[in-house]
Amino acid sequence: MASRQRRHPTLDDLADAVGVSRTTASNAFNRPDQLSEALRQEILHAAKRLGYTGPDPVARSLATRRVGAIAFMLDTGLSAAFSDPALSITLDALATEVDAEGHALLLLPGGDNGGPRAERVLTAQADLAVAYSLADDAPALHAVRDRGLPLVVIDQPHVPGAARVSTDDRGGAVAATRHLLGLGHRRFAVLSAQCLSEPRNTVLSVEEAMRSRFRDNRERLSGYVDTLAAAGIAAAEVPVFETSGASREQATQAAVALLTRRPRPTALLCMSDELALGALAAARLQALRVPADLSIVGFDDTPPAAWSEPALTTVRQDLGRKGAHAGQLALRLLAGKRPPSPVTLPVELVVRASTGPAPE
Amino acid sequence: MASRQRRHPTLDDLADAVGVSRTTASNAFNRPDQLSEALRQEILHAAKRLGYTGPDPVARSLATRRVGAIAFMLDTGLSAAFSDPALSITLDALATEVDAEGHALLLLPGGDNGGPRAERVLTAQADLAVAYSLADDAPALHAVRDRGLPLVVIDQPHVPGAARVSTDDRGGAVAATRHLLGLGHRRFAVLSAQCLSEPRNTVLSVEEAMRSRFRDNRERLSGYVDTLAAAGIAAAEVPVFETSGASREQATQAAVALLTRRPRPTALLCMSDELALGALAAARLQALRVPADLSIVGFDDTPPAAWSEPALTTVRQDLGRKGAHAGQLALRLLAGKRPPSPVTLPVELVVRASTGPAPE
DNA sequence: CAGCATCTCTTAAGCGCTTCAGATGACGCA
DNA sequence: TGCGTCATCTGAAGCGCTTAAGAGATGCTG
User: Which residues of the protein are close to the nucleic strand D, CB under 7 angstroms?
Assistant: First the structure.
């Protein structure tokens, strides 16, 4: 009792100090209706006096079988992930939704398997997992299933038993492509973030690119390519550049490579706004005027898309709604309900200043 | 035993199935040297067969008194927080550092008290807390102390018993100001993110602004103001605009307000790159040429600072190093060591294209 | 062959809490 | 007076795991 660094008091210490049972002390914190208000106050005061800050979270979790945290699984490291505002917005909306019910967010960054390591998932203290655009074959997804954790997937293929929300990626890609076709463009190129296991950082054939490990990637690409095909532009004529990573600098490099090909494309279909903004920088480097010489379309409509010079034509998705919906799905699963049928959120083409009539 | 949804097997189930003690089963996972390899393999196989995915994280934590997670406390919501790349970079570096030792990150977003709610902190399952630029008086900080959680603070005042890393905010502000003075500027204005409890979204006197709840804010401001004073420019002549929030749009609005004052400032000292980039947009709106009519200096040197047109003169701080250092401090505290003496990381002025000689 | 170290596995005591199933007594009502 | 009710509090059985201490068995040393 005389040790300087006294161990933190426990519920038993508190109960003893007040002279009640542990149950009663516990109830003072968790079930105020189970004891008289006077006694409760006495216990609470004693707690303050002893420096007892409430039930130990871990012990409480063991007893209640609830942690109060949701694991959020990413396919990349944090820096890469958060450099895309699309994630921030989605995550914020999700967090806001679940925070109201007392759930925090446990971040599980990805390694090089298209998601967090399985072991990370198996030892994560969480009641539920959310997968955000992981690779289809990410080991983390198996780990979640093995552990029997409820799962919400965002922008991913269906996983049995999981709740799902996704975006009309294909529809957005189709709209973007039609817009450019309508402006008279015939020479297209596609800019994609890394989508194969091994980064290639080079031009892929459409066929190769369709083996992407990411569903949203495949959906967007097929939207582009099929629409072009319907307009008589063969897939073989459409270079798809896969950057290594998804950062703006990498996109700039990639776009430079695309823009120095001959014949030079007049329209760039970019799978995200970040990639498109990188392409915009590449156009500047190449002294190409946008949209006079080159049209660029992004995807997502994140805030920077509107700030750029020229402002970006892009496919808007309601990221806040997506995150909020995912949050609601999470809460539903946590309440023991069955996953509702998957939802696909609509998109909308936003025409700004980065697209114009094809040159000549 | 016939229930369809069988409860997850426990270590006891596994031990029984193999016919060993629970200890031995536990050792198969945690201390391979404590049992023969043959038996270990038998146990591991049985585990796979039973669908036992390893020790329950919560129970394990209760027994070991370790959670394997670090609580990261922010002063704002996730969206606002991550819209500043400075945080992403710092957080990524921190995560990388602690991830190697098996620690995940538990995100505790802020409310309106300059940090997360105390109750969130008290119930968070974490071994340690990291405070990132919280308000000095954030209740979360008291909660951390009450709980007896080790603490690492980033860019905050000293907290007894906590480890600390911060930036030479004042030095950076001094360098930025000297640079502009050297270019002949005499009419200055300062752009600050929200720093008082109640957002004012208006011009503050320097005296008011020095009551900011955020240390980095005060340090930067004093660096600006003192340097100007030394050059004979009184604080009273320097408007300080406090935006409501820290987003680029809010910065743009604020900068417009500053730029429509008469006499118009020729130099804008911005407390972050995001604010500076917002100011750049404001200059465009006002048809002011940068740097011919107006010079703008940012702070942090995040990637977008180099992308902007014109590229931003700014104060570089090594955010990756800051995050990594914070991570190392965290690991040190977790290892039971005492916090080393606080570290202040250096900054460096990076002159790009957004600053030039004062007009006339 | 006694003595001792080593390897392998077990026993049992926690970790700090929640919660079901009572126990106790006061009170109202017939 | 007897009995059901209600409010209040307690006992005890977990939640699933780790780990110090120790028990046998085996092999080695002198």
Answer: A 19-24, 27, 33-36, 39, 59, 62-63, 65; B 7-8, 10-12, 22-23, 26-27, 29-31, 55-56, 59-60, 62-64
CB B50 within 8 A of CB B13: yes
Phi/psi of residue B188, each to 5°?
A: -110, 155
Q: Cα–Cα distance between A224 and A178 in angstroms, integer?
A: 9
What's the sign of the alpha-carbon dihedral B276, B280, B286, B288? positive
Distance CA A26, CA A73 (A): 34
Q: How far apart are alpha carbons A72 and B330 in whole angstroms?
A: 22
**Pick from A291, A323, A295: nearest CA to A91:** A323
Chain B CB contacts of A125 under 8 Å are 57-58, 61, 67-69, 125
pLDDT per residue as tens digits for the range A231-243? 999 999 999 999 9
Q: What is the distance in angstroms measured between the alpha-carbon CA of A49 and the sugar C1' of C23? A: 31
User: Looking up tokens 């700030």, which residue turns up?
Assistant: A307
Euclidean distance between CA atoms A295 and B168, whole angstroms: 44
Whether the CB-CB separation of A147 and A121 falls below 8 Å is answered with: yes
Residue A50: count of CB within 10 angstroms of its CB: 17
Using one digit for the tens of pLDDT, what is the confidence trace for A116-131?
A: 999 999 999 999 999 9
Give whole-number Cα distances, A195 to A208, A209, B169, B252, in Å: 10, 8, 40, 36
Predicted TM-score (pTM) above 0.85? yes
Cross-chain residue pair B54–A122, CB shorter than 8 Å? yes
Half-sphere exposure (Cβ direction) of B328: Cα atoms closer than 13 Å: 10
How far apart are alpha carbons B70 and B91 in whole angstroms? 12
Cβ neighbors of B130 (< 8 A, separation 6 or more) are: B70, B71, B72, B73, B94, B151, B152, B153, B154, B326, B330
Which residue carries 């890609």 as its tokens? Answer: A173
